[in-house]
Amino acid sequence: MAKKEIVIPNLIPGKRYRMVVETPATTGQPTLLAPSIEFVVPSAPRLISTYTPAYRVIPENWSTSTTTTETVVGSTVNIGDNQSAKSYTHYTTGWTRWKDWNRYVIYTDTYPESIGQSQLTWNHHDAYYKLLVFNFVSVSYGPYVVTNSDGGKQYPAYAITVDAVVQKYGTYGRTGTAYSSGSSSANQNLYYSRPALPTAAYKNADTTKEVTTTTSGTYYHVEVAVPSEIQKDLTSTDNVKKIPVFFYIQNGSYFYFDDSAVGSVPLTLATTPVVEMVKRNNYANANVSARDYRFTIAKYTKSGSNWYGEWEQKLDTYESIGPSISRVISSQSAVAR
């Protein structure tokens, strides 16, 4: 009788079965019935390709703020930035010196720009005149340098001179404290000028300021979970451990969850492999849902202080053609949950 190989599909590991073998009856021949055969299907891992993991993407907004100190260079103030230099000549209509004072009131019918703050209005001979009040600094023959004042109030810095003051009564035009009465004079010129301020250029001190920069964006937490029933197939001893290895496929290339390339053999580990039934990582790429998330099983064996891995299930071509992650049996593509 020729040897026959029989394949019985869909047997469950650990279950006991009884098989009865008989030949069908043919014309003129009796039915052949052999003794039944009982057997228990040995335990064996399911093909990894029969598992389907699940994944979800959880968006999370983030922002970070960084504060730095910046130096603000002090501005340069040039000569005349605050006040430009300017000279004026003003024709007055007369002046009066008060008795016992070196103070003079000069009458004018226009407002000089530079000393407008000291102007008063006085009705004289049915016409309005402006009164400019000055204190003489130098009591000598003119021209005379004066400072404008109004009841002791000092006005902005101006250099002011007037023509030689001639008393209405007298020959020498003496000035100074009046003797018995005030003195007055006819028309004369009033010269005044303002200096450039500042008179010398300078630089303001440098200052500092705090500048806060805020950066924001969105993280996409990708979480992939393997079916819990696979845990029964994960060996764990002091020297041998089996663990799920998560990766994703994009544009035909294989990547671990840290975006590094998956090689033809598992990574060598310096620490004991840890079983992770759920893998999670953060990405800044909003297109993470377009990736093909999967897992496979790696068997790690300890040698010395390191753990060396090999893929648990591989295609026959893994050895014949050559090791490659593309010839490793992996799960189905993860489905969104």
> How do the helices and strands follow one another from N- to C-terminus?
EEEEEEEEEEEEEEEEEEEEEEEHE
Number of domain modules: 2
Number of helices: 1
**Structure summary, number of beta strands:** 24
Write down the Rg: 54 Å
Shape: rod-shaped
What would you call the structural class? mainly beta
- Helical fraction equals under 10%
Low-confidence stretches: 111-131, 133-160, 163-183
Distance between the termini: 55 Å
- State which percent range the strand residues make up: 35-45%
How would you describe this protein?
The protein is an all-beta fold. The chain is 1% helix and 45% strand. The two termini are 55 Å apart. The strands form six sheets. Strands 7, 8, 9, 10, 11, 12, 13, 14, 15 and 16 form a ten-stranded antiparallel sheet that branches. The chain has a four-stranded mixed sheet with strand order 21-18-5-24, with no helix packed on it. It is rod-shaped and about 160 Å long. Mean pLDDT is 75; it is low at 111-131, 133-160 and 163-183. The chain folds into two domains: 48-59 and 217-336, no CATH class; 86-194, no CATH class. A hairpin with a 2-residue loop joins strand 12 and strand 13 (153-154).
